[in-house]
Each structure stands twice: as structure tokens, then as C-alpha cells.
Amino acid sequence: MKTYFRLALRSLLLNKVRSLLTMVGIIIGVGAVIILTSLVGGLEKQIKQTFESLGTNSLFVFAGSVGNGDGGPTGLPVNKLTYEMVNKLKIIPGVVHASAIVELSGSAVYGNKELKNVELRAVDSNFDQIYNLEITRGRFFNQGEVSGGKMVAVIGETVRKELFPNQDPLGKELKLKDKRFTIIGVPEAKGSVFGQDSDKAAYIPYTTARQRFQVERPTYIFIKTTDTTVIKKVKRDVEKTLLRVLTADDFSVRTQEEGIKFFQNILGVLASALGGIAGVSLLVGGVGIMNIMFVSVTERTREIGLRKAVGANSRDILTQFLLEAMILSLVGGVLGVGFGILVSFGMSSFIDTSLNYLYVGLSFGVSAVIGIVFGVAPAIRASRLDPIIALRYE
Amino acid sequence: MYDYLCYTKTIIEVQNIVKEYTLGGTVFRALRGLNLKIDQGEFVSIVGKSGSGKSTLMHIIGLLDRPSSGSALFAGKETGHLADAELAKLRSNEIGFVFQSFNLLARTSTLDNVLLPAVYTTKNYEVKQKALDLLARVGLSDKLKNTPAQLSGGQQQRVAIARALMNDPAIILADEPTGNLDTKSGQEVLKLLEDLHQEGKTIVIVTHDDDVASNANRIVRLMDGEIVYDKSI
């Protein structure tokens, strides 16, 4: 076997450029599977972290019947959530906190400087504690400012840097969606979440958003319970309360765990889909190997004839050519794994990635199998050549 | 397996062999009931014009092909019923081929070309040393690393002869060994074969050239698939 391996390696090395080019298909295929799945893995990690940072005693009320963990979203729901519901949910036993969260976006303007597409979160006064928002300058808005619908805003680090590069923003007035707000605080920078700058945001009281931006509906309602033991009971009570005014299709209540699971399911499908698409390029790589092996068999017809004349039997020839195809795809697989891991590590400096070793192993395994599958036909053709005819081949 | 080669005198024997090919629906008879015996230590030329059947005969003697009917024996043993793999093993251990067009592996060193038969043999011997000895024997010790493209035709054929000797075969089959060579190189190659014969090797040359054929001790002339002349000189 060692001899055959050396033979196969030798003839591949005789055509270095060709061998390398043949491997490119496999390298790209394996690399793409690893890169894409590690991107999805990174996204999953982010989402999980975001959910987990809220604590396991959290509940979310979304508009519409959101997929329940084993299916996808059932289309775009009509939002029937109201601010009044939040007050009703607050009095359920076991609920420590319930707040409506509105997500908007618009431009932030100060003087002649403008920052577009700022994420505008309209929230309650204790949002900073719930979402672990560390205020490093100034303060977050208080209950009084929320009740009064005051025009106050807490701006993210990116907004501060862009609009107030060399001055203290506290007390300054800026325009958010064309309305004037006084800046009262700046939280600590949080960095990017999957390529999206989470500091390119501003927080305003939800009451203000409701009055000034005519936002009739909260995007979702966030509920915190006393502890995790009551979470199931609170969930049922929340559903019961909402069912008095809404139908079951109008809302869905998710625990943090369910939320994670829901996204994990979506991302699982996404990972499989992307992995599958990348896997197709692996197949294309396999066809490339088959093609070049057929060319190689034809080119080396005389060599095959000679080998048979000096004593090689069909199996010897089959083994040699099959090994060549396998080495091509295995080396391609190894290089692809290296390429994929390198790129996903490289990307991790600006986007979250998480290597999924299952897919690393899987794509490598597939590349190994591809060598056999696509190498068999050319190897069989080589092994069946009649030595007399092969020796005469010009 | 073929230890009894030492005791048996006849290496090659074909009895009443017929070889037919079907070409475009018509049956072409290349060999028509041919009988031939070659003993150990003989130097035989099989000579004939193109189409006389000499190549077909060589393929059958060399175990690359089987007769349509009749029997072919190697060292007294019938080979017609042997599986391809068994024929390959016999070829590997007992037959050395020399071809008109050398058939050396391109971009492969002289040494590796000579080593090639060792890959497939079941015989046990010091492979590398044997190859070096054989290359010394054919006068190419200084060309070990050269590829065929860097050698003259005569040198290439000498490499091919060294390769044919690698597994210490019972017989050397040379198919038009001088066909691609100039007269001088051709003479050298024939001299080499003659020397091998002197050392006791059984040599069979297949050629259309009477001058080449005359180097042998026995001439077998073929015409239209039959032996028309068979005489030792």
C-alpha cells in the first residue's frame, strides 16, 4: 500500500499546478461550508448571549403567533399589542417588571452634523437595569420623566462620537427624527452585535415616543419575574390576561429559553441551507476531480499498458488511480479546513464567528468520500484497459 | 511456484493455436493453428512481414493475450485458463518485455524506470542494488538521475533492457527492439541481447528485419498466421 501511495503522490507531484487547481474546488467547498456555518454559529452565540444577559426569569410578548419553536414565523403579524396591556401585566403575581419596548429608527442631528439610521429605542425608566446598560456619563431617565413624556434622551457611544467628538454632550439638545431632545446620559459602549453597531442607538421614554412619534403599538413587551420557579405560572397568567382582549393568534409569549430555542431553530435551518449550498460546490469540486482523473487516464494510457505488461494487475492500477483521486480530495479537504478556519478567525475581529466542529468534520468527511466516489469511474476505466491496445496508444 | 523451471527444458510451447479478431463484422484470422516450442537458453527470432501474425504470437507468448483456440503453455503449464491477475503475476516474475518505442515513463529517472517492475513482483531481492547493478551492466551508471528525454534512443533502449531484467525473468521478449534506432545503436542493443543470451538467458526477438533476425540462433518465419520456416543456425 505504501508503494501505491508513493506512486500516486509521485504522479500528482509531476503535475503540481494541475493537481492544485483540481483541489481548488474542494478547498473552496470545504472552506465555504466552514465559513458560512461559523458565521451562523456566531450569530447564534450573539443572540443567545443577548437573551441570557436578560436573565432566565424573562418573558417576551410578541405580536402575532410567532413560531413556537418547531416551526417558522407564520407570516407578518398585525400588531395588536397596546401600552394599556403592559399595566395589566404589571399586576400579575410574580411579575417584578413589565415594560413596552418600541423600536424605531431615524436620523440624529446636532448642528450641521447628521447621523442617519440611528436605532431609536423607546423604553421605560428602569430599562438600563434590565438590559444591563451601564451609564458612564450622566444618568438614565427616571419615572417622572417617563410619566411626563419628557423630551430627554440617552445616546449611545457611536452617536456621541459622531455628533459630539470634542465636547460634553450632557445638557446639549439634539434632534432625533426631527424632534428636539435634551441629552441626559451616555452608556458604556457595547460594541457590535453581528456587524450591527449596538452603540448607534438612542433611548427615549416610551411615553414620549407614543406622543411625539404617534407610535400606537409597542414592538414587544418585556416582563421580568421574581425568579425562575414562577416563570411557567406567570407565562400562563400573562396568556390568560391577554386572551381577555386578544385572540391566541394575536400574540405569543416566550420565555428566554424558548426565545433562544426559537432562534436556534431558525439558525439551524439557515446553517443547514447555507452548508448545503456550500456543499454543492464540494460536489462540483468532485466532478472536477473526476474530469481531471479521466484526462489523466487517457494521457497515461501507455503508462498503464506498460505497467500491466511488467506485471501490474487490474487491481494494482485501480488502487493507484483511486488513491490519486483520494489524495487530491483529502489534501483539498485539509487545505479547505485550514482555509475555512483561517478565514473565520480572520473575520472574527470584525464580525462574530463561532466554528462549528460538526460542520468542520462533516465537510472534511464529505471531501474524503468525494475522492472515492468521483475517483472510482476513472480508476475503473484505467484498470480495464487492455495492455496490448494501451501499449499501442499514441 | 516456478522452481521447476530449472528442471524443464521448454519454456514456451504453443499447440495448434488460432487467434481470431472480429473487425467490423468480418472475422480476421491472425494465427492459423500454429505450433512452436522454445527451449530454455535459446535465442530465437520470429520474423515476418506486417500482418504475418508475429505480434499476435508475441502477445500470446508474453501472456498479454489468449489464443482463440489451442493451448499455450508456460514452463509446461497451461495458461489459457488462468485469471488475469495470475497472468499478471507470471508476467511480472517470468517475462521481461522490450518494446520498439522503449515505453519508458516520461519525466521519471532512469533508476526509477528500471525499478518499476519491482513494484509488482512477488519475488524478494535487494531492489535498489539490483537496479544499480543492471544499469552498470548496460553502461548507464552515469545516467541514473536522467529522464528519458535526456537520453539517446540507444540509451533509452538499454534502460528498457535493464528494466526487463529487473525481476530476473525466465525469458526476454523484444518486439522490434531496434526499430526506432540508428544502425549503430541498433547494433549495440543486439550485442547486449546476444551477451545476455551467452549468459544463459532465453531471448525472443520479434522483427520484420532479416538482418536483425540473423543475430539469433534460430529463425522462425511467419506468413499469414502460419510458420513457413523454422531453422536453427
Quick overview of this protein structure:
Chain B: GO terms for molecular function: ATP binding; ATP hydrolysis activity; transmembrane transporter activity. By secondary structure, chain A is an alpha+beta fold. Chain A has 2 domains: 2-47 and 264-392, no CATH class; 81-245, no CATH class.
How is this structure best described in words?
- Chain B: One of its GO terms (cellular component) is membrane protein complex.
- The complex is a heterodimer of chains A (394) and B (233).
- With 394 residues, chain A is an alpha+beta fold.
- Chain A has 13 helices and twelve strands.
- Residues 68-74 of chain A have low confidence and may be disordered.
- By secondary structure, chain B is α/β, with parallel strands linked by helices.
- In chain B, 30% of the residues lie in helices and 30% in strands.
- Chain B has helices spanning 54-61, 84-94, 110-115, 127-137, 153-165, 183-198, 210-213; strands at 10-23, 26-39, 43-48, 69-74, 77-78, 95-98, 171-175, 202-207, 218-223, 226-232.
- Chain B has a six-stranded mixed β-sheet with strand order 6-7-8-3-9-10, with helices on both faces.
- Chain B is globular and about 50 Å long.
- The interface between A and B is medium-sized, with 20 and 23 residues.
Give the overall pLDDT of chain A as a whole number. 87
Write the CATH fold name of one domain in chain B.
Rossmann fold
Cα radius of gyration of chain A in angstroms:
31 Å
Cα shape of chain B: globular
Order of helices and strands of chain A: HHEHEEHEHEHEEEEEHEHEHHHHH
- Report the count of strand segments of chain B: 10
Q: How many beta strands in the DSSP annotation of chain A?
A: 12
Helix content of chain B: 25-40%
Give me the number of helical elements of chain A: 13
Which tags fit this structure?
heterodimer; A: 394 residues; alpha+beta; 2 domains; six-stranded mixed barrel; two-stranded antiparallel ribbon; 19% strand; B: 233 residues; alpha/beta; Rossmann fold; six-stranded mixed beta sheet; four-stranded antiparallel beta sheet; 7 helices; 30% helix
